Model the fold of this input.
Amino acid sequence: MTVISGVGPVLDELRRTGVDVDVTSRRLAEYSYDASNYRVPPVAVVFPRSTADVCAVVKSCVKGNIPIVSRGGGTSMAGNAIGEGVILDFSRHMNTVLSIDVESKSAVVEPGIVLSELAETVSGASGGVLTYAPDPSSKSRATVGGAIGNDACGNHSVRYGRTADHTIALDIVTVDGVVLRATRSGVTALDPHDAVAVAAAARITSELRTLVSDNLADFRLELGRIPRQVSGFHLSTLLPENGFDVARALVGSEGTCAIVVAATVALVPVPPAALLLSLGYADVVEAAEDVMTILEFSPAAVEGIDEKIVETMQHRRGADSVQGLPSGNAWLYVDLDGENLAEVEDKAGRLLERLRELGRLKDGRIVADLAERKSLWRVREDGAGLSARLAGGGESWPGWEDSAVAPENLAAYLADFRDLLAAHSLTGVMYGHFGAGCMHVRITFDQRSDVGRAVMATFLREAAELVVRHGGSLSGEHGDGRARSELLPIMYSTSMLDAFARFKRIWDPAGVLNPGSIVDPMPMMNDLALQGVPNREWKTTFELHQIGTKPDLDPFVHATQACVGVGRCRSTSGGVMCPSYRASGDEKDSTRGRARVLQNMVRSSATVAAGWASKDVKESLDLCLSCKACSTDCPVGVDMATYKSEFLDHHYAGKLRPMAHYSLGWLPRWLKVTSILAPVLNRAMSPRTGVIAARIGGLTTKRPLPRFASRRELRTQTAGSVPGGDVVLLIDSFTKGFRPDIVGAAVRVLVEGNRTAECRTDVCCGLTWISTGQLATAKKQLSRTVAALDDGTDRPIVVTEPSCAATLRKDMPELVGTEAARRVAARVQSFAGAVIELAAAGWSPSADVPEAVTVQTHCHEYAVFGEATQRKALAAVGIGGVDEATGCCGVAGNFGFEPDHYDMSMKVAEQALAPAVRRADPTRPILTDGFSCHMQVRQLTGNQSASASMHLAQLLDPAPSTRSTQTPRKGHQL
Done:
């Protein structure tokens, strides 16, 4: 790795200009990775706010000979978004849609705008008539700048082509520090009065024209041969017959020639009608054989996946996470569209008939149900992450994940490619854009050993030779980067490589823009992230063995390495992950950012003890709400809540902890005392004494404390308990201490469903100790709980508090680690899960249930029992109108009660819960099975009583006279 000198004065100069520069070790760890196989620490990360900031950075870095790497969502799989110099992250501030012209079907955007957000903004501005077409699977976090850098395509590229096809003009900063505009017909100074910029544009224009005239034959013969020929520079766009299109020549240049600060992009009409066909085949080669026939029907998309991805999705998120697939071992999704639905349905019918006649199709169906369509597209879009850690064991990696051939050559290429994999004893997980001939294949490379790396290097060269024999390209949309640039001589002639080098020098004579990509490549086997990680034991209390963890690999190290950088945690919509990132927009607060800092800890710490003492990791984990959403929303299943708990346990070993760890972490113990003193405490708890108590306990004074429940109240509510009943109703500490009315309601619902309930108030899940990283105590608590509940029966254990149910189901077997713990965990269900079972057995509530409700699904229930659990329960009892606040409430146990986290807690609430509360009719029930969610509703509405929201058991309570009623809510307060 190159040592860059003279950095300090350059960074000092930038700070004096007001540019946002970060050189902390934590920040550099976050930006040492993208979604590729590589790790390259930068010297600084800059978050520009304007073109002027970018110009200042360029001028200073060029003067100091410091490399500059542009970065958007950081989802590059080829290593295009990392480098040794200064990283320019445009996603933080330069992320705005500047203008939309519906009439001309164009928009002007900053490079940091996320692709899906651009499409949504365009749809809103055009009344749903227009959209931005490029839609790679990473569109929920990938940016326009990144798409321009790689020439990204997406799922609908069969219809809409590549990003280059939608690029009208680019505003760029050159190494001279001037701003130019590259268009479809040349390059000019953005400001015609800027003499330096005018001169730079004239020089570049002259040298580009000379380059073209010197290479007319090569450009015509070697470039633009197939739809997805993305490798190298797109110099054929400069040919006279293509209008000297400089804008498109820069698309796909991977930030090696200029820095994009704005783009004018073309918009396309949204088809009036569309539907999805799902087609099942015996294998991917059989599927590829039918592609040319499918293309005759003018589809908008022809996407494919193999069985390994489907198996992993179902393993991680449950069998019902994949709906709508016909029988088969490989599948194609075919999007058909047209002017009206009848026309599209007729086309779909004719296509199915034709494919059946050909004899390769095993099964096919029209996917009419919107939920099934969403489910299928999610499997495809999460392909890169799902394939990283497979349900059957083993890991797969990029490196040869983006090759492309002409669609008519795809089947033959895949057949030969499978033989090549077998020859090297490798497995490839296949998915991608079958209709465009572009395959995304993640391969089971062993990058940790010398032998494995040697196999990988040999395979990559042979794979490059194979794709070239089939007339293809090393890259079809991800770019060459560090992964493939070294292989370009296999694909291109010496004269073409010389032309690429000249093109780079015309723009960047100093060679400071993303050096090592395309021209003068870095060796593809250098800087591998998995190479050189010390083989040390990181003892943990949690059982962290992942599927495929090898005996010689430490489980904690393997767990931290699960993050492969695809960045789904940076999405701002869909799912729950990651609430802290959605609130701050800072990579530091994403699951990926935290995972990268943990990876740096296990790699770079001088000792294991020094690692557990890391201030960087503590800072990185500080705003993690431990919501567990990443354990299910992350395609790889990164469980940051568990890693945080483990880290805190070691970090504070033998040290004084924050006061909240004692007040809230030991809450079950304190509640035993408060249940005795509840009448006295509640009378004494005035606003002033509440503030004093909060300060003593290390809690925020902005959130009123709840009323404590007495032992007498709990005894009253458990009066219906039947020893040895059909169901064990486990009463958690939160319900015992603050919401005992739920117990009576739950018992009555179970009885009405013909289930007797044995109420257990003598066991604890240890959640508060787990979330504060006090694992020895948590393990003791859970061991006692296992002993008490492992009674030799298979009685369901129904837990009223979803976070405690999730702890017993997931954390208990990982902490206790016995067969008994696993037996007990398998019996645990949330109350909503119990309602689903009761309804399936024929029960229907006698309570007068409302037609519509607002529901906040607890994050832990979402993650452990399935995202649809609450919706299914409500549907089962006949409630059709469900406004679900899909997102973390923001309180998340102790998090929202801690002074330093209160503001973040309320920002997180604004992602879903607060808007749902504001739009809810005052008479509509708000359901919050989780106590944390209930407390946030109290805060949001200003109604500090128990009636602010209801538990599902209270809603279904067959005894209205004993049920708490809900009073009209006050206005939203912050």
